[in-house]
Specification:
Layout: H1 26-43, E1 54-57, H2 66-73, E2 79-91, E3 97-107
Antiparallel strand pairs: 1-3, 2-3
Length: about 110
């Protein structure tokens, strides 16, 4: 039985030469390959698993905030939590760190297909 949900690790993967890769820039494909390679390495550790109810959203606009992410993801299920990863070393005058370009979304009833 797949108790670590490893079958979900391939969700959203875009491979070179497929119809899904058409129009995707070389830079983006390289980022995707590096992210997948890092995920594969991390999942070799039996203490890591793929969450069934949390997604990492990448390549978000720098000005994208939690409220925009929550609104965007609401169409995929009840939004339990959204979190944009921020660089606190580069915070603005309000103490809000610069977006790192990715965030997390969790839902109790995700409907992605």
């Amino acid at each position: 039985k797949d108790t670590r949900n490893l079958h979900l690790a391939m969700e959203g993967v875009i491979k070179d030469g497929t119809s899904a890769a058409e129009g995707v820039s070389k830079t983006d494909m390289m980022k995707r390959k590096l992210a997948f390679k890092a995920k594969k390495k991390k999942l070799k550790n039996v203490n890591h698993f793929v969450s069934r109810d949390r997604l990492c959203i990448r390549n978000m606009p720098a000005k994208f905030g939690e409220s925009e992410l929550k609104k965007l993801m609401a169409k995929y299920g009840h939004v339990r939590q959204v979190k944009i990863m921020r660089d606190i070393q580069h915070a603005n005058s309000d103490g809000i760190g610069k977006s790192k370009g990715y965030g997390l979304f969790s839902s109790l009833n995700m409907k992605l297909h």
